[in-house]
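Hey, quick one: can you model this chain's 3D structure?
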Amino acid sequence: MFKQDAMFPRFALYGFLKNLRFFDPFILLIFRDAGLSFLEIGLLYSIREVATNILEIPSGIFADVFGRRKSMLMAFGAYIISFLIFYSFTDFSIYALAMILYAFGEAFRSGTHKALILEYLTLNKMQHLKVDYYGRTRAFSQFGSAINALIAAALVFFSGDYRTMFLAATIPYVLDFFNLASYPRELDGELTKLSRGMVGAQIRATLQDLGGMFKNWRARQAILNSSGFSGLFRATKDYLQPILESFALAMPVFLLISDKRRSALVIGSVYFVIYLFTSYASRSAGQFSQRFRSLAHAINLTFLAGTGLLLIAGLATWQNVTWLAVLSYLSFYVVHNLRRPMNVAYISDQISNRVMASGLSVESQFITLLAAIFAPILGALADRLGIGPALMILASGVLVLFLVVRVDEKIGILKQGNS
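Sure thing. Here's the predicted structure for all 419 residues.
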């Protein structure tokens, strides 16, 4: 049974503050407002994802040598600088630089905080709570996103300017910087000594980890299933914003205020509702997974359900049934947040604790790689065919991918029976 402990509030606060990125519910609209095409936006997303992948190795070395906490502090420093650049400029090339700094933050953060939590659970013999504990901390992240949507809408409504949100986002990130600095040193894990040729050794070790993971077919399927869906979600989630903008402008209300302020009210309200639902979904992931005959069965069904919902959202957008597109997108967000704790737990079941960090790192790299591939493809399709058909084509392709990444449900039954 889940019971809060001394570290849980700090883990929860981290997620809450991390998700106070006020620009998030409007990021695609911000780029469009700056004159960028969907393809250019997709390229910016791709730059972010590729840079994140490239920086994974030095970030891993830094965490191994200096500790996971310092890695997180470096990440938040890079985030803050990138926010200030986004606030100060509107040029595509400068945005690309800011995206690289943002990627630096993602690389030094991604997987590291999950490793901190898993290390804490291991030290305190609480591994059996992995799904529930991680799901509940993630619920606070999603609640932060819900509050974030309301604050973001208020910022746009009263300032009339999207870019102010980048400046405002530095405040919670500075607070989270100090929260992370308060984590106990024991969560750093066993530190290694910096030596000559360490980067080359780390590259070789990463390739060996990658090869090892893909020799273990259970781990391979678990990682590909998780990264395929998460990569799709990361590449497509922001396309809800122009759908909501069209919905807001078509509504026969608030006609006396500007289009940007009308959009802010609708987008902020919808994102608030979405993240309330996703917060509940993350908190309930443990109970949800127990409703199925195995964790693997739950993972397979939610893959199909989530991808199918995105396909429906694309079809509804194409046919101008905006309310259905919004409802489908809301459900897509919920499914993603139900899946995430289940995926982390399932992957950890397929690999030993000794290579846990490597397994999560490989999964993270595949998510960024697939998102980097999906994002410009989606952007180019949206420029040429429109947002609805673009979402339909990409979702259909990932549904076909399920035939390759489906996890073995018999293994899941055996695992659950032995636990």
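One thing worth noting: The chain is about 80% helix and 0% strand.
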